[in-house]
Amino acid sequence: MRWTWRQILFQLHWLAGITAGTLLAVIGVSGALLAYRAEITEALNPALFHRAVPTAGAVPLTPAGLAAALRARDPQAQVQTITLRATPGWPVRVGLAAAAGQRRGVQHWLDPWTAEVLPEPRGDEAFETLESLHRWLLLPRDIGKPVTGVLAAALLLLAVSGLVLRWPRRTLDWRAWLRVDFRLRGRALLWNLHAVAGTFALLCYLVSGLTGVYWGFDAVRAAVDGAVGEGQAARMQRSGGAQAARVAAAPATAPTADTPAASTPPPAARTAADLDALWQGFLRASNGDWQLVTLRLPARANPRVEVTYLRRDAEHDRARNRLYLDAATGAVAEHRRYAALSAPARLVNSIYPLHMGSFWGPVGRVVMVLASAGLLLFAVTGWLLYLRRRREAAAARQARRASLAATGGHAASGASGLLIAFATQTGHAERLAWQTAAALGAAGVPATVQPLHALAPAELSLHPRVLIVASSYGDGEPPDTARAFARRVAAMTTPLQPAPAFGLLALGNRQYGTFCGFGHALDVHLRRLGARPLFPPVEMDEADPAALAQWRAHVGAAFGVALDDTAAVPALAEADWLPSELLQRAHLNPGSAGSPLFALQLALPAGSDWHAGALVEIEAPVAGEPPRRYSAASVPADGELLLLVRQRVLDDGGLGLMSSWLTVQTLPGAPLRLRLVDNPGFRLIDDDRPCVFIGNGSGFAGLRGHLRERVRRGHGRNWLVFGERHPDHDAFFADEVQDWQARGLLARVDLAWSRLPPAGRHVQDALRDAGDELRRWVDDGAVVYVCGSLAGMARGVDAALRELLGGAAVEALLMEGRLRRDVY
Questions:
Q1: Do 154 and 23 fall within a single domain?
Q2: Which Pfam families match (predicted)?
């Protein structure tokens, strides 16, 4: 099978999520904590960061005073950096030059008034470890940096691929992007949370990924810095590394426009830095507009000293100005203001605040923290989706094996007095009847299985016990093949002798007004004829597992066997489930006055087979909800399964559960579970008799399957009568139909457009207009297939057929299997 680009993208998204998701969650949570490191540390150490004034009128020490106090205690101490805050009572951070044989010098917190060395903050060591985890995963730095760089690239891939994969059809509808639907359950809820949370955090993850790649790979960092003219000194200054002071102390390039004239002494004339002069020079150059300043003193005599400072109303916490002062006089040699940098240079200087979110102020930091912590949600939901997919695939294989094993020898063996009869339109009731027989057979109670249409009502008295599985067609009517049995049993007046005991499983759909109508009618007639119920009728909406469990319990109690023991009875509702996935989805009728119609291509396991006209039962995404059925619009020779799914719009404007899930929420590549259900009442004939295919809307799916199979066989006596709203928006089938006509494999096509001015035309109108031709085709042995909506089309077609052919002829066609319907 060839993969589409969306499948490839989904596989990449899934692979990146499974391999990198857990580590990204670790990095995200640690980053969320590090974002508030300063605030947490301050809260843990209030006495350290809010020093009280020792005596009234005390004045904080200047940098020169602090350095002198340190040297008085330790003559060998060489101050390398001094960092001060304008906040009163805030301690001073001093960094000392590395001693001989050491890689880094020590740093101290000092009392601003006494230069007393203060204890290190509580929690600081833990944050150091946390930062190592965040930046290098606790690995050696040279190894950890590229590893986190790769993870940052994986985050970029996840963000971009996730956006593309979940791109909604209604792009401008905010609810399609940002609404969390808590009515969903199971896999659908996980997908919804995963997709919506990803949309909220998308920008944050793009920023985090790009900045992480910048820091993770030295080559990327050098290339970006070089492109914007940022040199090694600037990189070191931004990183705050120990080497920064040594590199920054080197002579600078030519003065900028705002650099005062100042002589640069030759190397031989270098002098030691005068801290008092430097401090006064800084205060003059900054005009007192500062909240944080760091003086970087050269390790040896140097004509210039670098000072970095943050203005009071700085754009963000790293929008620092760089000031180069004459070491001896404090005169300004160069003043590099952040605001004067080019836009690319400002962006590169803002990498850290972008990464932390502080670039956008306090709110931006909160958003980035939430997004970082949200990586844990993505890891959890991603793993749950992955594990659920694996469990469902395993369960499907197990259920399939159990069903095959259970039905392998007990089918319709021997008559023990138990008859299991079924009336089916789509094959669901037939399958349940056989599965019930298999379950009873496994428990030692053999049964005979027969369709109701093969029985006369009086034949029920030949069996002391009868189980009936009866589907209702449309609005409570009997299935086509059981219509004659229904008429005969309703007309009977003589009681059944002897009267059998019976159990009834009535199948229906609550969407229709008369739920399980045929089953209830059978119950009334059988009681009237003297049959004794073994238990109350069991109503089953589609494939409701609760109703199936009730049926199993009643049958087991009636025959004295434990059918609810899963070791003895396979899970009937789970039989024949197949793993599948959505390959692609296409909107077929944009601009239509009707609800959107989508074509869904689904993958199937190798060897999957079905008959033209089969139904596809798809497991609902919500626990407890029954599966939904759709007509197969393709044939096995196509290699893939095609469905036509129309969105069902509810009264509140929302979408129905399944149509929303299949046409909006489910992403290409997403796993599904389905089963292929034979549809004997709509099966295609094997010979080359003429066929008339009648339908509307999404009913084209069932007709298309038949037409494709007829075309494949080379049977060309086909007539299509089909209705939709308007040819400008709803002719999604036109190209294929024209191709069949051109090849001589579709003899006639009549189309009805209900919204085409002046009055529109419906399918039944097209039939009436071609009444003479229809009679000729029927007289020639044609089989008529009807597929589409029950309300309107199916009833209108039934009335038109009875008008054109006569009621008795239509009933004869039904009994002969020459009128086959799949309506909903």
A1: yes
A2: Flavodoxin_1 (PF00258), NAD_binding_1 (PF00175), PepSY_TM (PF03929)
pLDDT category at 566 given cuts 50, 70, 90 is very low
- Amino acid (1-letter code) at residue 135: R
One domain for residues 220 and 355: yes
Lowest mean pLDDT among 211-225, 241-255, 771-785: 241-255
- The pLDDT of residue 388 is 66
Find out whether 700 and 616 touch, Cβ atoms under 8 Å: no
User: Locate tokens 């309107």: which residue?
Assistant: 792
pLDDT tens-digit series, residues 81-117: 999 999 988 999 999 988 777 777 889 999 999 889 9
Do residues 107 and 128 share a domain? no
Name the nearest CA neighbour of 26 among 137, 132, 126.
Answer: 137
pLDDT-derived band at 264 (thresholds 50, 70, 90) equals: very low
Residues 6+ away with beta carbon under 8 Å from 598: 585, 586, 587, 588, 644, 645, 646, 647, 662, 663
Query: Where is the domain boundary, 634, 658, 680?
Result: 680
Burial of 331 (0-12, 13-18, 19+ CB in 10 A): middle
Helices (H) and strands (E) in the chain, counts: 27, 25
| Range 37-57 average pLDDT | 88
Q: Of all residues in the chain, what percent are helix, strand and coil, respectively (each to 5)?
A: 45, 20, 35
492's CB contacts (< 8 A; 6+ apart) are 457, 458, 525, 529
Residue 255, pLDDT > 60, answer no
Is the predicted pLDDT of residue 408 greater than 50, yes or no? no
Considering the domain architecture, whether residues 391 and 440 belong to the same structural domain is answered as no
Q: Are residues 697 and 780 in the same domain?
A: yes
Q: What are the strands of the beta sheet with 641-646, ordered from one edge?
A: 628-631, 615-618, 671-677, 578-587, 597-603, 641-646
pLDDT tens readout for residues 218-230: 999 989 888 887 6
As a whole number of angstroms, the distance between CA 505 and CA 489 comes to 18
Radius of gyration of the chain measured on its C-alpha atoms: 40
Name which residue leads in pLDDT, 551 or 816.
551
Domain match, 485 and 372 both: no
Are 316 and 305 within one domain?
yes
Q: How far apart are CA 731 and CA 724, in angstroms?
A: 8
| 704, part of any domain | yes
Q: Name 47's Cβ contacts closer than 8 Å, sequence gap at least 6.
A: none
Tokens of 717: 């006596």
Given a contact cutoff of 8 angstroms between Cβ atoms, the answer to whether 498 and 453 are in contact is no
Mean of pLDDT values over 647-659? 85
| Mean pLDDT, all residues of the chain | 82
Domain CATH code at residue 754: 3.40.50.80
Domain boundary among 341, 370, 389: 341
